[in-house]
Design a protein that fits this description.
By secondary structure, this protein is mostly helical. It contains 6 helices and 2 strands. It has one domain. The relative contact order is 0.13.
């Protein structure tokens, strides 16, 4: 009789222990599920921010591409005019010179990638996406920025120096105009067309500028392609998880 009671107590105790263990396992499973769900929500939010950021960068890159093309076209027209031995007076030439002188400032938004790295980029379930994101932000963008900055450092100082020397020689005239409440100068026209036609140093700087435009355009267009590829993958991933 006593052995039967002991057996029942043991079975009861084992059953209680199993229930506790099962309860703990279920709680852990629920907790893990909640954590994964939270991580997924955060991941999706960051990827959505990245998608918005990339589209904004794309618009910026396309704007820069247009500026580079305009600059390239203006310089080409100036060089063609010199080859023809004839330069226009007044604002038409001043307009070309203004476009040719424009500086190109390259910028992009890196914050969504930094947020993703902080979260843990390997938590992204789409492994192809991880590879493309990493390559874009650690290789494509930095290399493009470095390339364009190095090209700018190589050619722009030469052009600006040649321009200042041309002003000193009286080939170009510097006019002061007000822009946005500030006083900034712009070269609006040539004061001596014949001397400008004969100014080899200045036109060599224009040729250097033209080469700079060609190199920068090539690099920028390559970056735009990488940007478009990443946008496509993010949009595809977004549709998949809906």
């Amino acid at each position: 009789m006593s052995e039967n009671k002991t057996g029942k107590y043991l079975k009861y105790a084992v059953g209680e222990i199993l229930l506790v263990v099962i309860g703990i396992l279920i709680a852990l499973q629920i907790n893990n599920w909640n954590e994964k769900r939270k991580d997924k929500i955060i991941e999706n939010q960051i990827l959505e921010e990245m998608l918005v950021s990339l589209k904004s960068d794309k618009a910026t890159f396309k704007m820069l591409e247009k500026r580079l093309m305009d600059k390239d076209s203006a310089i080409q027209k100036i060089l063609d005019l010199r080859e023809q031995g004839e330069l226009p007076f007044g604002k038409s030439f001043g307009g070309l010179m203004g476009i040719a002188r424009q500086k190109i400032v390259f910028s992009y938004d890196r914050s969504p990638y930094e947020s993703l790295v902080s979260l843990g980029i390997n938590k992204i379930s789409n492994k192809e996406l991880i590879i493309v994101i990493n390559k874009y932000y650690t290789q494509n963008l930095p290399r493009s920025v470095k390339f364009m900055e190095s090209i700018e450092e190589q050619y722009l100082p030469k052009f600006e120096k040649a321009q200042e020397e041309a002003i000193k020689r009286g080939v170009l005239k510097k006019l002061f105009v007000k822009r946005g409440g500030e006083t900034k100068w712009s070269i609006l026209y040539q004061t001596n067309p014949n001397r400008l036609l004969e100014d080899d140093d200045y036109y060599q700087s224009m040729i250097d500028q033209f080469q700079y435009m060609e190199n920068s355009l090539g690099r920028l267009r390559n970056l735009i392609r990488h940007n478009a590829k990443l946008i496509e993958l993010l949009e595809k991933n977004k549709r998949r998880i809906k």
